Amino acid sequence: MDTRLLKYNEMKEFYEWAIMKNTYLHYKGKDFAKMGDFEEIRAYDHTNACSKRDEFFRTKFGVFCNKKDMDRIAGYWMNYIEKRYLRENKSLKEEDTKKTIRSSDGKRTVGMYPESLRETTFTYNNKYEEKYGYKDHYHLISPSRVFDITEDKSGIEKWRKRMGEEEADRITEESREIGITTHNYVENSLKKMSGISHLNSLPLPNVKNNKFHDFASHLGNVILEEGLKDKLTEIWGMEAHLYYKDLYKGITDLVGVYEGEPCIIDYKCKRSKQRKEWMSRYFCQLAAYGMAHNNLCGTNIKKGAIFVVTRDENFQKFVIEGEEWNKYCKDFTDKLKFVAKKNKEEIEMHINKIDNLQKDFK
Predict the structure, then answer these.
(1) Angle between helices 323-358 and 143-150 (to 10 degrees)
(2) One domain for residues 64 and 164
(3) What is the pTM of this model?
């Protein structure tokens, strides 16, 4: 059967479905359910279409919805992927072995980095890993949504009118793609440099299909070199899912020990240099994540850092701590309170409408 190549996103959907079923998959002694970066899967994404996906799963596994069969299914699946990878990358592997540049300890490939970053390492401490995750708190509001409700949008509306809708959409989408790709590059590089994963692969695997690969790699290297190297002494979580019970939820780019103190860190890609007075929304976001982490994990985070890298690779670092940290904690809680009151008013309005409707039946 010509199954073609399974698209990475479809594989990820299968993985997430398995996790939703609360099943741990094991393959060659690995806990598949903890392979959050899908390193062994990403390498096989060489196509833009997967019309044979459904046929493949039906033929290989049949109808699967029973947890007891998941280990067997995962084994078949990973065996197929492994065989295909070896078949399609044999010649490429032979060529790569001649060119591979490895770290001095031989543990990871480093040829994709400038020489100044090739021996950079970080310490990963997973002591809070079990605390991360939304669990039963997916319904909570996010800081971004809080800002959307409470902030003035007239500036964005004027900008869109000035640029024209089509051009504004193009710029917005391009910025989004560059931002996501740069975030992925930094996150996967931190995993490689701390020995978690990606030891023998690129931080951004799918090179040919990623038009911003080289650009995002350069931006990511600036963040690693200027922002994190020799300053980040311990990583607690990357893309950590946090929540403050009954109030809000969100995902922080990075949390750990930075310049000797517990810290929430966020990365931003911008078209031009920024000013600190423009960072209020981001500072409130840092404060929200810090409060959530403290509530969830019992930490005492009172510092936040925003790394900004511009299109021409200029780096800026904005830090809040002490009284400034407290100020933005209060600012965020004020916004959260405004949203709660607004929701209460809307609920009361709906109740009044229902009361009026019920009068017709008395």
Answers:
(1) 70
(2) no
(3) 0.70
